[in-house]
Amino acid sequence: MQAYRFALDLTPAQERSVLAHAGAARVAHNYLIPDERWSDRLAAISFWSLNLGLAWMSFATLLPAGALQLYKVVDAGYADGRSLGYLQGGTNMFLEWLRLPGDVVFMVGGVVPLLWMTYLGIRYRSRRTRSSEAPAETLLFTEVVPTGAEDPDLAVAAATGTVADGAEAASPEAAP
């Protein structure tokens, strides 16, 4: 399997927006860890272990325990389904212990590699900066203007058939 890394060259406003949303940890890892220290293998192990651990917890423990508790509530009432006697009963305790393998996979295979990559990011932090030749404001996306159009507003108007003044735009075929 081939993995690819992409670098974002964000403006200060875009950086604030990215850091304010989910996924900021991955951006931080990509920024902090030098390329020669980044491990796609550790990232993949962490990703799959976190997901497998959560799936184990959901399907081996939470789903069966929730279904049994719902059955108890419907059969005997809410108070019985939430009582200490039911929650510490044999079946419920067995299901809680059945969760342990999923928790181990989650912690050892998912969290430990993630913490190791975080340590690498702090210990071997890259000192990347913008080059002096790069403009201060770099856009993520650029506007594509059809060839032969001198004014981008007229090109958009020709494509949509409207002009800002309300006049009719010339058709692209009529252009010299």
Helical residue percent band? 55-70%
Distance between the termini: 51 Å
Helix-strand sequence:
HHHHHHHH
Number of helices: 8
Biggest sheet descriptor: none
Describe, in short, the structure shown.
This protein has 8 helices and no strands. The protein is an all-alpha fold and 176 residues long. It is elongated.
Give an overview in words:
The chain has 176 residues and is mainly α. It is built from 8 helices and no strands. It has helices spanning 12-19, 24-32, 40-76, 78-81, 84-87, 90-98, 100-123, 152-160. α3 runs antiparallel to α6 (90-98) and α3 runs antiparallel to α7 (100-123). The chain is elongated and about 75 Å long. The two termini are 51 Å apart. The relative contact order is 0.12. Mean pLDDT is 73; it is low at 160-172.
List its traits.
single chain, 176 residues, mainly alpha, 8 helices, 59% helix, elongated
Topology readout:
Elements: H1 12-19, H2 24-32, H3 40-76, H4 78-81, H5 84-87, H6 90-98, H7 100-123, H8 152-160
Helix pairs in contact: 3-6, 3-7
